[in-house]
Amino acid sequence: MARIIAGVTSSHVPAIGAAIDNHRTSEPYWQRVFEGFERSKEWIAKAKPDVCIVVYNDHASAFSVEMIPTFALGTAAEFPIADEGWGPRPVPVVRGHPELAAHIAQSVILDEFDLTLCNKMEVDHGLTVPLNLMFGSPKEWPCPVIPLAVNVVMYPPPTGNRCYMLGKAIKKAVESYPKDLKVVIFGTGGMSHQISGQRAGLINSKFDHAFLDNLTKNPKKLARMDHLEYMREAGAEGVEMVMWLIMRGALDEQVDEVYRFYTVPASNTAVGHIILENRKKAGKKSATKMKRAAARSKVHRVRS
To answer: Any residues with CB less than 8 A from the CB of 271 and at least 6 apart, and which?
Structure first.
């Protein structure tokens, strides 16, 4: 059956995309950002996912204030690159996986999550920048991508708990898909930042690091966080991090943190990134050996 093997989070700062497109990644300001993803590129090249599910928010490219779905799943065979005002980014067209997307849609909707299904949808920097950071700049993306757009732009966005539970429903859906596929799920956006108003330029590194810690160890605590706390601690746009909880909900309860990277600033945003793998379950023999070793250790401690 299909399985989600890992989750990835990444900021999707548009200026990162501009630095890639304009060949400025080696400049001192940007070099530290891109060097932070070198290990991630190596990791995903070894993982070789068959499909990536990318959770992101649309920036008035596919949708507008006239129509704002809370959750929109891309079910098309391909997704063109949106023109965000200066022409489409020079990146490959995103190939979809309609069969798996349709299966996820059926399973998740029958689990009472109302999705908008998009058989035609352009994707913007919210999706393409994380792909660049993880895969570099290939002529074609190495695997199909299923976009999941989440409204975190117009009030009211979904709660962290709703996002976390949607992740669990996606996990169930993927694991019921009969074909053998390795899936990596991305949560994108954030971290702390505010792009307008009196607090424009706000960055709260203490909050960001605590969020990363809890994403690994205590995601249920994050799921209880309300919108006002995100805005107060992480800025108006910090609420994008609820999308990371979809990724986390799609993983097992116990995960291993493979890699973490954090830097400030990139444009006016704190860049956060983490890779989480589902903890490998020990076989029966290994589990028995571990129990025996623990018992011997306990006896030794008592005697000593």
So the answer is: 11, 13, 16, 33, 36, 191, 261, 262, 263, 264, 265
Strands lying side by side in the sheet with 116-118: 116-118, 71-74, 145-150, 51-56, 182-188, 3-10, 269-278, 255-266
Strand pairing partners for 84? none
Q: In the chain, what is the greatest distance between 2 CA atoms, to the nearest angstrom? A: 73
Q: Please give the radius of gyration of the chain, using alpha carbons only, rounded to the nearest integer.
A: 20
pLDDT tens digit sequence for 80-111: 999 999 999 999 999 999 999 999 999 999 99
User: What's the pTM value of the predicted model, to 2 decimals?
Assistant: 0.92
Inter-CA distances, 268 with 9, 131, 201, 209, Å: 18, 21, 5, 17
How many other CB atoms are there within 10 angstroms of residue 93's CB atom? 13
Positions marked active-site: 125, 193
* Rounded distance between C-alpha atoms, residue 129 and residue 50, angstroms: 19
Query: What is the sign of the dihedral through the CA atoms of 277, 282, 283 and 286?
Result: positive
* pLDDT per position as a tens digit, 144-198: 999 999 999 999 999 999 999 999 999 999 999 999 999 999 999 999 999 999 9
Domains of the chain: 3-303 (3.40.830.10)
CA distance 175 to 4: 8
